[in-house]
UniProtKB/TrEMBL annotation:
UniProt protein name: Cytochrome c oxidase accessory protein CcoG
Key words of the record: 4Fe-4S, Electron transport, Iron, Iron-sulfur, Membrane, Metal-binding, Transmembrane, Transmembrane helix, Transport
NCBIfam families: ccoG_rdxA_fixG
Gene that this sequence comes from: ccoG
PROSITE patterns membership: 4FE4S_FER_1, 4FE4S_FER_2
Pfam families linked to this entry: Fer4_18, Fer4_5, FixG_C
Membrane-spanning intervals of the chain: 42-62, 89-110, 163-181, 193-214, 338-356
N-terminal signal peptide: none
InterPro entries found in the cross-reference section: 4Fe4S_Fe-S-bd, 4Fe4S_Fe_S_CS, Cyt_c_oxidase_cbb3_FixG, Electron_Trans/Redox, FixG_C, Helical_ferredxn, Ig-like_fold
Domain 4Fe-4S ferredoxin-type: 256-289
Length: 471
């Protein structure tokens, strides 16, 4: 006999009332309503700062070059006064790991606030929704425009919207590519239609990506394409701050007049106005509980607080809260997982700063000539090497080239070189054996390059000297 799992009815639907589904479940376009409030202002301030940082930094100069530039041709990454070389990319990898741990820490503490306030997808989506409001009107006007037949008015409004979307996308594509190609040259070539095919492709690619992601896909990127939405809930605990609806205070929901005692009528504080649903960029109903689609942007909090103010009820029916707090307990801010992430984050940040400060600004690589050895005019056994010396600083320097603990070897040829800022020098040198016989067929030899004005700045590298045992 098959064992049956008992079912429990958690809610009874009133057949006399229409079934209302949030936009996320209806599958159509999501038209958000305008609103004001604290979290909207925080998001506007944060988004404005990020836009200024992204679009403005590309136009800053540092001396005679662009302040922040990834020069792919020269294989250098300029960050104001610092130059990151391919040998330093491990530091950039470490920085990405630090950012990941920072995201984990924020998620454990306050849920998905990264998505709601600083994620580029969310930031550009809010900008594109603003463009919709400017060209097509507020929520009700846009819904009516969607349902209306095509006309000159509808065509003009839609054309203006998509034109504004493409303009924002194009400026984004130009700016992004401008971090890899000097942006002033890029804009000049674009205006004069002299843009190279490869550069034009990438500008078009990022323009199209911005236009599609923020204009058409929107919440689908956050819900279906972003991996963070899939694993972020694993890091939640009962003390994580998430956007929550206080059902104990809000139920039973229903409309009422402002001057009645709703508690005496068996009603909670929720007037079932659905404004919290209308402002949600992903179209969910926060009253249904924590959901995968929620970005923790706080839009529903601002909208609900505005309604509570009009009704004369206390704010916070929808608020950032934890599972413990909603159950009548107290949110624990200091807990093992959060403290562990914070400790790891501090340790990694300190290690990164130390590694950045201690990174060598002088690089030496040695390549031995493919020939084993040769005999010079003085009758000595000689090996040929190529020294690749890189001046990673932003100033020119003179360097002395020598052998470290030379022993039976002597360096022949150039002993001092001048390198400009960021210059790479390929220097051929020879090393001769001063004794008649070698102690071994292969012996280690150590090269040293030292800055003349500051001898403490030096670097050494090891190679091999090959010689015959008998002559």
């Amino acid at each position: 006999m098959t064992e049956r799992i008992p079912a429990k009815i958690v809610e009874t639907l009133d057949p006399s009332q229409p079934l209302r589904l949030p936009p996320a479940q209806l599958g159509g376009p999501i038209h958000t309503r305008s609103f004001t409030g604290l979290f909207r202002n925080l998001r506007l301030f944060g988004s404005g700062f990020l836009f200024l940082l992204f679009f403005g930094t590309a136009w800053l100069n540092w001396g005679d070059r662009q302040a922040v530039l990834w020069d792919l041709a020269e294989r250098k990454f300029y960050i104001f006064g610092a130059t990151v070389w391919p040998q330093d990319l491990i530091l950039l990898s470490a920085l990405l790991i630090i950012c990941a741990f920072g995201l984990f820490f924020i998620t454990v503490f306050a849920g998905r606030v990264w998505c709601g306030y600083t994620c580029p997808q969310s930031v550009f989506t809010w900008v594109f929704m603003w463009a919709e409001k400017v060209t097509e009107g507020d929520r009700n006007q846009r819904i009516k425009l969607d349902a209306a037949p095509w006309s000159i008015n509808k065509l003009l409004r839609r054309s203006a919207k998509h034109g504004l979307w493409l303009a924002i996308g194009l400026s984004t594509g130009i700016t992004f590519v401008g971090y890899f190609t000097p942006i002033r040259e890029l804009v000049s070539e674009l205006v004069t239609l002299q843009l190279g095919l490869t550069t034009a492709f990438w500008v078009a690619f990022f323009t199209t990506a911005t236009y599609l992601n923020a204009g058409w896909l929107r919440e689908k990127v956050c819900r279906d394409m972003c991996p963070y939405s899939r694993f972020q809930s694993v890091m939640f605990d009962a003390d994580t701050l998430v956007v929550s609806y206080d059902a104990a205070r809000g139920e039973a929901r229903g409309p009422r007049r402002k001057d009645i005692d709703h508690r005496a009528s068996g009603l909670g504080d929720c007037i079932d106005c659905t404004i919290c649903v209308q402002v949600c960029p992903t179209g969910i109903d926060i009253r249904d509980g924590l959901q995968l689609d929620c970005l923790s942007c706080g839009a529903c909090i601002d909208a609900c607080d505005e309604v509570m103010d009009k009704m004369g009820y206390p704010r916070g029916l929808v608020r950032y809260s934890s599972e413990h707090a909603l159950a009548g307990g107290k949110t624990r801010l200091l807990r093992p997982r959060l403290v562990g992430y914070a400790a790891m984050l501090l340790v990694m940040c300190a290690a990164f700063v130390w590694a950045w400060q201690a990174r060598p600004l002088l690089s030496l690589d040695i390549t031995k000539d493919r020939g084993l050895y040769r005999e010079n005019t003085a009758g000595q056994i000689e090996n040929i090497y190529r020294l690749k010396i890189i001046n990673k600083t932003q100033q020119p320097h003179r360097y002395a080239v020598s052998l470290l603990e030379p022993g039976p070897f002597v360096l022949q040829g150039t002993r001092e070189v001048q390198l400009n800022a960021g210059e790479i020098l390929d220097l051929p040198v020879s090393v001769a054996l001063t004794t008649e016989r070698a102690a071994s067929p292969t012996q280690p030899v150590y090269f040293q390059v030292m800055e003349v004005d500051q001898p403490e700045h030096k670097v050494s590298a090891k190679s091999t000297f090959v010689a015959p045992m008998h002559r």
